[in-house]
Amino acid sequence: MFIVGITGGIGSGKSAVTRQLEQFGINVIDADIVAREVVAPKEEALQKIAQHFGSQILTDSGELNRAALRAKIFSDPEERRWLEQLLHPVIRARIIQQLGNTRSNYAVLASPLLLETDQHQLTDHIVVVDVPEAIQIERTVARDKNNVKQVKSIIQTQMPRDQKIAKADTIIDNSADLATLETKVSALHSKLLTLAKQAHNHD
Ligand code: ATP
Fold first, then answer.
1. Of these four, 11, 45, 69, 141, which has the most CB atoms within 10 Å of its CB?
2. How confident is the model at residue 163 (pLDDT cuts 50, 70, 90)?
3. Quick check: CB of 20 below 6 Å from ligand 1?
């Protein structure tokens, strides 16, 4: 299977791109969704988190209390590392499993941390959705109703824009309107179909 990684900073337009690719019939695995699945009730990773941090990390109904977990790791890099070392391999394994079940002409792995983790090693082609920081902030604030300061602090934790661009095989500039993006995604889809076919012929 030809696997396309799609990434970009917060609010860059990854979901807008993958939604359209799904409409073209492409199977999309979303790393954010997988990351939530692996800590669902009854999952082994959630049991390990509860053993490590204590049962107060769970809600009354046995779900992960995300706010409590965020508070634990926010100020403690060692706890953050512990959590990442637990979750990253589990997330990766499940992504591989889900990619193995895809049946479209190519498959997409959408992940905000594609380049920050080893997830990019699972892909044959990397697409970076790119907008200037001011647009990132404006669109994220409008979408999530959070403030500029919060969005800026999230951007600070992500890989800088120029480094992401340097690792891209294809860059989608999403600074114009949604109609422009749609045209670009149609062209991207055609290109990816061609690349997938070429890769297939080489096998
Ligand atoms: P996150 O990493 O936070 O999940 P994302 O990269 O998936 O973000 P989207 O949710 O696709 O980003 O886009 C952010 C917001 O900007 C959404 O509300 C989306 O509708 C809007 N948006 C995306 N592209 C454009 C555009 N070209 N013009 C105007 N609004 C846009």
1. 11
2. very high
3. no
